[in-house]
């Protein structure tokens, strides 16, 4: 697949991937009177996916409604509220691949899952396009949507721009480090030719995505950071005081930007992108508050505790509070992103081959644990899902214990009724087991604390 260009890759998928082919057939069957509801993840990749899918369905003539509820798994109550009667097609994008999605056929003639997360079950009735089993790393749902839109074409430069933003949001490529994941390489190479200015490395304020070299960034990183921060807008300005729900704000912004009609290849600065649009002004304001919070949290994750090393990977623990405005966010709003900037300095300071950081964050609504890094030796997604499994055995159902994610970035959450000490105890047990397995002995390691200069 490495040597293919993007068009060839899409053709290859059409011929060889039954999920892709099934998705194409379902979308092709849409008619002028067809009704489609899209439920997409509330993060940047999910919003980008919804943008591409809405435009695609409209081009195919269907009527589309987009929903971006907060949370990962689509809940039956959310579906019941959004859909009276039934729709022709229910599209669930970037919200995991759960067997329970098979139940949604009572609200829809067809259910299509577009996703890149590790499977959480095997839905048998839904049509599923999820390359995760074949390509465990390296794609974003927005790219999968763009591939479908390309097959059913034509697409335009705003589909390209937004798919690229989705890929950046999910760390599929890094323009500053010049890194691409294989599956996304054809698309990203194409985008770099279309939008060279977005990829150009520049000196300047690093974004949340500039984790290795904190002196440089690129415009695509800045745009994606602005989109990410936009999704937090309602935590800064409560909806009751006229603030818009962040994910919808960003969705509106992307649509307004496309309607404004400028070629993204002409963008030179973040102001070119955000300026002149009302939603852009709100995102700019939110960015200023985010920068202040970033400063505040940088101090809180300065000296994580060294837990141990496994096959050259130093594992660190940061115990800290989120920014005040993010206390009720049921996802890793800002703190874990700040903590991830420590991976590289810790590696250099203490001579590990790789590093992993576990961020333990008690919030008003429960305990959030985030895990980043691991150099492919430690599987963060597996660690978080096992942590959830172990805690679910100790606490009754309904305590809101969930965990999982990708190899290099994963999340765990437990509701307020689960005590902090219980989560910490299981987490430390699991870390200890990891070190014992890694060293091949049963003795474990001397606990020690390393403090960075
Ligand atoms: Mn995603």
How would you describe the overall organization of this protein?
The strands form four sheets. A six-stranded mixed sheet has the order 10-11-12-13-15-14, sandwiched between helices. A five-stranded parallel sheet has the order 2-1-3-4-5. A two-stranded antiparallel ribbon has the order 6-7. Strand 1 (35-40), helix 3 (44-59) and strand 2 form a beta-alpha-beta unit. It starts with 5 loop residues before the first helix and ends in a 14-residue tail after the last helix. Helix 3 (44-59) crosses helix 11 and helix 11 crosses helix 13. The chain is of the alpha/beta class and 453 residues long. The chain folds into three domains: 6-191, inorganic pyrophosphatase (n-terminal core) (Alpha-Beta Complex); 202-299, no CATH class; 301-439, Diaminopimelate Epimerase, Chain A, domain 1 (Roll), CATH 3.10.310. The protein contains 17 helices and 15 strands. Bound molecules: manganese (II) ion. Manganese (II) ion is lined by residues 45, 94, 116, 140-141, 170. Manganese (II) ion binds at residues 45, 94, 116, 140-141, 170.
Keywords:
453 residues; alpha/beta; inorganic pyrophosphatase (n-terminal core); Diaminopimelate Epimerase, Chain A, domain 1; 3 domains; six-stranded mixed sheet; five-stranded parallel sheet; 15 strands; disordered C terminus; binds manganese (II) ion
